[in-house]
Task: inverse folding
């Protein structure tokens, strides 16, 4: 039987952090605690490298990056001078980055804190300031998400 473990109540910004406010539930459905999870706004600018269907990394012109043979017999891809890696257009964070973090915390502790902390001690960089609103918008669809545990 699947039982609800947590619900994401809201996603918003505090001090250049993406905040996911989560209600954790006990197995009987009663509220265990409320907890805030925070990610720095700079995460918006971190992207994974693009790869083709074979898993080969691509360069900025769309071509597969060349490979070279290493001393141990393995090969590695490298960037020729003047080239850049092709990067994905979405941040490296995805739904699982958030949900897996919350799931891990849910299973690790029996109680969080009841309440929320809007005084995140952090000296934001310009990237945090510039990226946070993008992260918040990107993950707004998680609001109302319930997570279930099969027991």
Result:
């Amino acid at each position: 039987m699947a039982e609800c473990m947590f619900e994401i109540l809201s996603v918003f910004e505090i001090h250049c952090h993406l905040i996911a406010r989560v209600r954790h539930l006990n197995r009987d459905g009663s509220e265990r605690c409320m907890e805030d999870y925070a990610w720095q706004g700079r995460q918006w600018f971190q992207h994974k490298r693009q790869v083709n269907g074979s898993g080969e990394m691509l360069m900025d012109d769309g071509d597969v990056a060349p490979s070279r043979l290493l001393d141990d017999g393995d090969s590695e891809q490298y960037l020729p001078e003047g080239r850049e890696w092709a990067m994905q257009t979405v941040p490296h964070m995805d739904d699982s980055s958030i949900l897996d973090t919350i799931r891990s915390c849910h299973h690790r502790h029996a109680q969080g804190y009841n309440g929320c902390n809007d005084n995140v001690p952090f000296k934001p960089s310009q990237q945090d300031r510039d990226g946070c609103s993008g992260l918040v918008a990107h993950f707004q669809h998680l609001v109302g998400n319930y997570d279930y545990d099969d027991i």
Q: What stands out?
A: The chain has a mean pLDDT of 84. The longest helix spans residues 95-108. Residues 30 and 84 are 52 Å apart (CA to CA). Helices lie at 95-108, 126-138.
